[in-house]
Each structure stands twice: as C-alpha cells, then as structure tokens.
Specification:
158 residues, Arc Repressor Mutant, subunit A, Alpha-Beta Plaits, 4-stranded antiparallel β-sheet, elongated, WH_DNA-bd_sf, DNA-binding, Leucine-responsive regulatory protein, transcription regulation
C-alpha cells in the first residue's frame, strides 16, 4: 500500500492517541471528516492498522518485576520451535517472544511478574518444563529507559 502524507499523519496521530475522534483527526491533518474516515478504514482493511489497545501501568497492577529471559533449545526443528512458541504464547506473563540469532540462545522473552517468587514459579514450573528447553539465562530490568509502541512511519515508507 502506497502511503501519502495524509496516511502517514493519520498513522502517527493514531499511534499517539487512538481515542481521537474522526473530526479532531481530520482537523489535525487538514482533511474533511469523510475522506479522513475513508482513509482510516482503508488503513484498517489493508491490515496496516492491526488494532487499538489501552496501555496499562504494570506497577499499578502489582507487576513490579520485568525480566529478559534467553532460552536455549536442544534441537532446531520446526516441531520443537512450534511447540515452544505455542506454549509460551499461552503464558500471561510473557509480553514478547522473539526468535533470535547471534546469542547462545534461540529465544528472548520479555516477562513481567509480581516479584521474585512469582518469577521463580514461572521459571521452574512452566518455562523449564517446556519440551526441548535446555538452558535459561535471566536478566532483570532495573529501569525502563525508553518504552515505545509507536513505529517510525516515515522511516518505513521510504
């Protein structure tokens, strides 16, 4: 899908404030409401906009410990990876699962838990029990320095 400046502006604004009403969005980008709404719908239908979400404060929910977990697998087979990915996808503590290269691990997980006891239970009762997991290395986040959910629209359009 070819994006013009209006589409780029719509995407930037919606990433910052998905609750903006169509009239305000149209005013901000310099279009009338009808064509603005058509553009938003087209971006949704194309699959470029995949959804709208509320961002929550983990600490206010009692989830005060974040960890980056590197997972090593015993075999690099599609079946082994599919089983691992399906299993971790069901764990509510797992915010992100990345298949990686360049490390002594196959996956990196970003997990959030209440405390160290919760992390220990996750590690010992769930992660290490997944078939094929041979190694786990954990790093605990001291402070989130940069947290973004917005993609750089103008860089991707080039």
């Amino acid at each position: 899908m070819k994006l013009d400046r209006y589409d780029q502006q719509i995407l930037d604004i919606l990433q910052a404030d998905a609750r903006i009403n169509n009239q305000d969005l149209a005013d901000r980008i310099g279009l009338s409401p009808s064509p603005c709404l058509r553009r938003v719908r087209a971006l949704e239908e194309s699959g470029l906009i995949t959804g709208y979400r509320a961002m929550l404060d983990a600490k206010k929910l009692g989830l005060s410990l974040m960890a980056l977990v590197h997972i090593a697998m015993d075999r690099h087979t599609p079946e082994r990876f599919a089983n691992f990915e399906t299993t971790v996808g069901l764990l509510p503590e797992v915010l992100e699962c990345l298949l990686i290269t360049g490390q002594d691990a196959d996956y990196q997980l970003k997990v959030v838990v209440r405390d160290m006891d919760h992390y220990q239970a996750l590690l010992l009762n769930k992660l290490t029990r997944i078939e094929g997991v041979t190694g786990v290395h954990s790093s605990f986040v001291l402070r989130q320095v940069v947290t973004k959910t917005a993609l750089p629209v103008e860089i991707g359009v080039a």
